[in-house]
Structure formats: C-alpha cells, structure tokens
C-alpha cells in the first residue's frame, strides 16, 4: 500500500486504534515519497503496475512472485492427498483476512454440513467461530508455518481456497501466489476473480473462479464429486506453476525487465545527461554559484548546503562553490573538495578556495551572513541573489559588531530560502521581510523509523547535550535532569552529541554516549528512549524531528515562537526555560502513558510530512526558478515603463 487516499479500503486498517492508524499512515507516506522519487518501478501484478504508472507518472514492469528451488524440491517428494478425510484448505497467515474469507464462508459452511468426510483446514489466523459458527468439529487449525513446512501442509489439501473481498481496491492488487504455491503441490484452487487470479486461472482448466455463494458452492461440489476433473485440474495447475512461476521462469523475466530498464535509461542519458558532471551544464539548466564558509567536521549546516548542491547538479544545473578562506586549514580548492568528499560526499561541482574571481551566473547564493557581504559586492554578476538561511544568525552573538552586521545583511534585498518556517517568522518580526520560501529538513527513514517491537519497561531520557554551544542551553538541561533524577531515581539519562570528556561536573548518574560512531546508533537511541530532550532557542536542528520519526516524544523550550517549528503545541511538550518547568514536562511524559502514546503518534505523523532528500532539493530548485522568473519579469516590466513615456512624447512632438 502506497496511496494514502485508498487506506480506508483495508479491513485491518479500519480495525486499528487511532495511534496505530497514524503510524500505519506514516509508513504509507514514506513509501509514497520513495516511489515518486524513483525513475522506474517493478511490481508483482499488472494491476499494481498500471496503478503505479497512473500514481507516479513513471514506468512500471511486472515481475511476479514465484517459487524457489527448495519449494520445487520439497513438492516433488510429496504424495497426493488421501481420499478420506478430505481437507479444504485456507492458508490465511495473518489476521487481515476476515472479510476475504467471508466471501466463501456461506458456501464452505454448506459443504461442511453436506459432506461427512470433508473438513476445513486453516493455517494461520482466522476467527472461525464468527464466520462458521457451530462447525468447530469440522475445522482443523494449524499454527503459522515456515515456508518449507507450508509446502508439505499444502500437499495434504484436496482443494485450496483463495477468496478475496471482491470490491476492494487493496485486494485487486493482490498477487496470485496463493494459486501458485498450491499448484506446485498439485492442489487445485478456487479463487475470487480479482485481476491476478483471473489472469492466471483458466476457469475449469487449471482452477475455478467464483464470485457468488452459488458459484462457490458449485465449484466446491464439482471438485469433491468429480475425481477425474480434480486430477486433471491438479495436473494443469502444476504445469502452469512450473512454466510461468518456476525459479528459471522468474529469472528469465528478471533479466528481460532489467535489460529493458537499462536500455531505456541509457537512451535517456544519451539524450539529456552530461557525459561528465564536472564543469558541464545541461541544456536548460541554471548556473548557480554558492559562497560558503569553510567546512568543518560533522557540520549539519554544511551537510544541508552540500546536499542541495549535489542534487541540483543531478537535476542538470551547473553549481560552482566558492569557499571563504576563514583560516589557513586549506591551501587550494582541491584540498577542500577532497575534505568535502571524505567528510560528507562528492559534490560533483567545481570547488574554489577564495572569492576573488566570482564569475557571471544566473543565481548567486549566500549561505551565512559573512558570505552575504561577498554576494553584495558581486551583485552585478548574477540575475538573482538568494540567501540560503538556516538560522537567525544575529542570535549567535552578543550585541556587538557581529550581531549588527548579521542583522544588516538581511536588508540587502536577496530572496530568502530558509530551513524551516522559523527564520522567515523572525525576519518578518525584526526587519519586516515578508517575502521568501522555506523547506523542511529531510529525514532518512532508513535510519529514523518507529519501534514496532517495544523496548522494555525501563524509562530513558535522551539529552542532546552540547556544552560548548550556548543556544543549546546545556546548564539548564543538567539542572532540570537533576530534578528528574530525584523524582525518578530509576530513570536512565543518556547524554550524547559531543565528545564524552565534555560532560563534566554532572551531579547525578548518567550514561555518557558521547558522539556516536554511526548515525544508525542515533536511530536506535531514539527508538529506545521514553523522552527526547533537545533545546531549540533559535532554529531547531534536525534532531527533534528525527526523534519524532522514531516515535520518541520531544520536550523543548517554548521560546522565540518555537511552536511554529512543531506546527502546534500538541506535537511536543513545550515548556518555560526554568529547571522546574522542564523537569515537570519530562515527568509528565514519563508518568502519563496516554500522553506518551499521543505525543508519539503525533510526532510520527509530523515527521512523516518532512521530505526526502530529493523532495527537499526539488523544492529548493522550484523556489529558485520561480524567484528568478519573477525577477526577470519585474525587470522587463520596469524597462517597459521607462521606454513607453519616451515613445509617447516623441509622437506628441511630431
């Protein structure tokens, strides 16, 4: 499932709690974003392929689910089922098939009453007491099996059932695997005529399709009464399974599909892609020059900038990077490029150390207040100047030279593209700037995702602790957690985010995680934490939203209009900047299970709205193109207002 608009058609979704539904929707939206960012798709049924093509506008190929060598080997060793007793089988598996089986239940109930030697065998979960009341003695239940044992169990059946909720869009997307696996064991299948089964079953030859109760009853009776037909249908089903769904057949299909995809991709590349991404520009692409402060290790701000540059290059634009020579760490652009590649990733862009020779371009991008002054000095070289703003930078300094110069840079007339909505709010409140666009941080959902298993009963608080970064309010966090530890002495408190030796003079027992070696460890930390404590006195980092994506409730400060970052106060616990208020907020989450579940569900839902890296870059690209178009239209209209009066006066003079 990838289309959230169709989720109400899933029976199991309708029976979920609101929190479970929110978590399920979050997963669907993640899948949807991934699919829309992909260029090509493979799927298991023709119905899904058509749906995907309509939904994404991209091509899709069908590679059906098939059999493996071990299944074929085991099935070859099985014997035909015995004549008495005979089992009608329903291989349910999970708890999601109540409405599916209901399609066949009335006919099955009649058959069980009419044939003394016929029983129903259910493998997996099915509430037979509701669906087949009074027939408990005619039903055999088998627990879930591994796939090898399932081959043996399937071979014991006389008939395999594959009913589906016939009007459900979700069921129309189902694969024909229930037919294939039964056919491998020479068991004929009666199925609802959903698309994949209608494509695989020639009714009356290698299986039977049934829609109404009468059709189900007739199909069951025929296969129970006519042994010759049963044997013939079993043989034809087995032939169909091996000819179309064997490992060899699926392998051939895989080769065919991927050769087709590769050929199509090569054609696209030969038509539109540059042969070398260095210094080349795609037809129709923009030339974008970035001015960036010198990069350093583990810089989240630089990572966001570099991510945008890399993707804009992949979209066909020519990016050039000028690095401010803030100190003598690097001696040339090649050294900076190597550092960026090793510490972050390859930009596939020209990297130049210094700002003395900035060339003409379509867009000139400032990325910090110090770079804005360089952009201003080179304003005649660009059609548009963009301020890529990730925080309200005057707040980094006490009132003084840096503060007033950072504030003054916001009056240069550049077009603002900000990381999150908060910087735009601050610009409107301080300098009256109401024009601009914002993007949300991208969240890596391969790393940050909710915990579906559970992590035990011990409470844990994860504190994003940065002692040397004043805006992270480290002393305030320590004071608050000391109070929490007195109230809940058994709670585990984890400090992380800085070097381990930075955490000194902490007046309570805590776990010193320091700087994790991998970001995967952060996902594990958030999933196993009851509360995430992360202070955002200026624009927040990605940290609280990564916590939310993992289902971890967040406690943050209610300062500087911070609520705008969380959409509303229902998505996080926002508290006053006092140790007592912070401790109370943390304890409320630790002590109130309902609040904890609600915050977790709301956080997952909010984080699900954040873009992927590709979607973020597409937004930035769209903002740049739109601002550039507006600038050129404005300049064109301005030139016309100057020319027209001159023409008019000439006519009057004539």
UniProtKB/TrEMBL annotation:
Gene3D superfamilies: 3.40.50.11090, Glycogen Phosphorylase B (3.40.50.2000). Residues 460-586 form the WsaF C-terminal domain. This is WsaF C-terminal domain-containing protein.
């Amino acid at each position: 499932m990838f289309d959230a608009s169709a989720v109400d058609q899933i029976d199991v979704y309708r029976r979920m709690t609101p929190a479970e539904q929110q978590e399920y929707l979050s997963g669907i939206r993640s899948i949807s974003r991934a699919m829309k960012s992909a260029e090509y798709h493979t799927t298991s049924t023709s119905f899904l392929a058509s749906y995907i093509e309509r939904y994404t506008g991209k091509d899709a190929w069908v590679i059906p689910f098939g059999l493996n060598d071990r299944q074929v080997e085991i099935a070859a060793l099985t014997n035909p089922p015995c004549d008495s007793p005979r089992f009608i089988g329903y291989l349910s598996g999970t708890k999601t098939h109540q409405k599916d089986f209901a399609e066949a239940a009335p006919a099955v109930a009649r058959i069980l009453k009419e044939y003394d030697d016929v029983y129903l065998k259910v493998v997996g979960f099915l509430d037979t007491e509701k669906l087949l009341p009074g027939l408990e003695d005619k039903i055999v239940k088998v627990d879930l099996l591994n796939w090898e044992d399932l081959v043996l169990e399937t071979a014991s059946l006389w008939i395999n059932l594959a009913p589906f909720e016939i009007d459900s869009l979700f069921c129309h997307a189902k694969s024909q695997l229930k037919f294939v696996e039964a056919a491998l064991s020479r068991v004929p299948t009666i199925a609802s005529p959903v698309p994949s089964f209608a494509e695989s079953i020639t009714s009356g030859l290698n299986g039977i399709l049934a829609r109404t109760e009468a059709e189900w009853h007739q199909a069951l009776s025929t296969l129970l009464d006519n042994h010759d037909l049963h044997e013939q249908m079993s043989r034809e089903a087995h032939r169909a399974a091996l000819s179309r769904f064997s490992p060899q057949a699926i392998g051939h299909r895989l080769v065919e599909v991927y050769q087709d995809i590769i050929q199509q991709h090569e054609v696209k590349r030969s038509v539109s892609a540059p042969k070398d991404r260095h210094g080349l520009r795609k037809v129709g692409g923009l030339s974008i020059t970035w001015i960036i402060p010198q990069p350093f290790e583990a810089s989240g701000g630089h990572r966001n900038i570099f991510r945008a540059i890399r993707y804009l290059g992949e979209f066909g634009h020519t990016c050039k990077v000028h690095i401010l020579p803030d100190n003598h760490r690097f001696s040339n652009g090649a050294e900076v490029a190597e550092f960026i590649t090793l510490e972050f990733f390859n930009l596939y862009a020209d990297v130049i150390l210094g700002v003395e020779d900035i060339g003409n371009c379509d867009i000139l991008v400032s990325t910090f207040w110090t770079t804005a002054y360089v952009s201003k000095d080179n304003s005649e070289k660009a059609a548009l100047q963009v301020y890529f703003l990730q925080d309200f930078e005057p707040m980094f300094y006490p009132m003084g030279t840096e503060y007033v110069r950072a504030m003054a840079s916001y009056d240069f007339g550049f077009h603002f593209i900000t990381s999150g909505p908060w910087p735009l709010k601050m610009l409107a409140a301080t300098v009256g700037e109401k024009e601009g666009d914002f993007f949300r941080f991208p969240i890596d959902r391969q790393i940050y995702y909710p915990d579906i298993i559970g992590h035990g009963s011990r409470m844990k608080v994860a504190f994003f602790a940065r002692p040397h970064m004043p805006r992270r309010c480290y002393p305030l966090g320590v004071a608050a957690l000391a109070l929490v530890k007195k109230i809940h002495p058994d709670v585990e408190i984890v400090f992380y985010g800085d070097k381990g030796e930075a955490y000194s003079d902490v007046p309570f027992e805590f776990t010193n995680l320091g700087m994790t070696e991998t970001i995967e460890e952060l996902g594990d930390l958030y999933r196993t934490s009851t509360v995430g404590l992360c202070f955002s006195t200026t624009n927040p980092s990605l940290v609280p939203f990564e916590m939310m994506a993992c289902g971890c409730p967040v406690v943050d400060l209610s300062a500087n209009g911070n609520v705008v970052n969380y959409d509303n106060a229902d998505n996080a616990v926002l508290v006053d900047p006092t140790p007592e208020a912070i401790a109370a907020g943390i304890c409320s989450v630790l002590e109130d299970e309902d609040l904890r579940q609600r915050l977790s569900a709301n956080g997952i839902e909010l984080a699900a709205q954040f873009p992927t890296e590709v979607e973020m870059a597409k937004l930035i690209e769209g903002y740049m193109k739109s601002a550039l178009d507006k600038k050129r239209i404005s300049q064109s209209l301005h030139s016309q207002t100057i020319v027209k009066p001159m023409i008019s006066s000439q006519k009057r003079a004539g």
